[in-house]
Amino acid sequence: MIYSSRHVLEIRSQFLSITPEQWLLLTMGVIVGCAVWKLFIRRIVHRVVGRLNEKAIKVNTIALVEGVIGGTVFLANACLIYLSTAVANFFLFSFALTGLLVGAWITIPASFE
């Protein structure tokens, strides 16, 4: 979609109307989201993939399991984004947006061998 200068000015005014408290909640949501999803990747995803590697399971099966985990995280965070827009919660929105990106990142296989 091509935006005109009027649209760009409207978007700018919407960003300027966000209060500092709301920006703080957005920032805190991103920081907490990064920490939580980093621990999730380290504790859950790496542990599952490591156990599958030890059992000598095919690489395609491991990529499928990793894709299912990532897709589940993606879908759960998409639902959280919908919920956060319904209740107008800035912290939950930025937390879920971070999780949405992490879910998409987990879904992409590590290598294309």
Structure description:
With about 110 residues, the protein is mostly helical. It is about 85% helix and about 0% strand. The protein is built from 4 helices and no strands. Helix 2 (about 20-55) runs antiparallel to helix 3 and helix 2 packs parallel to helix 4. The longest helix has about 35 residues, at about 20-55. It is elongated and about 55 Å long. The chain starts with a helix and ends in a 6-residue tail after the last helix. The model has no long low-confidence stretch (mean pLDDT about 85).
Strand content: under 5%
Overall shape = elongated
The number of strands is 0
Sheet having the most strands: none
- Global mean pLDDT: 86
What string gives the helices and strands in order? HHHH
Number of helical segments with 4 or more residues = 4
Which class best fits the helix and strand makeup? mainly alpha
Low-pLDDT residue spans: none
Helix content range? over 70%
What's the N-to-C terminus distance? 36 Å
Question: Rg to the nearest angstrom?
Answer: 18 Å
By oligomeric state, this entry counts as: single chain
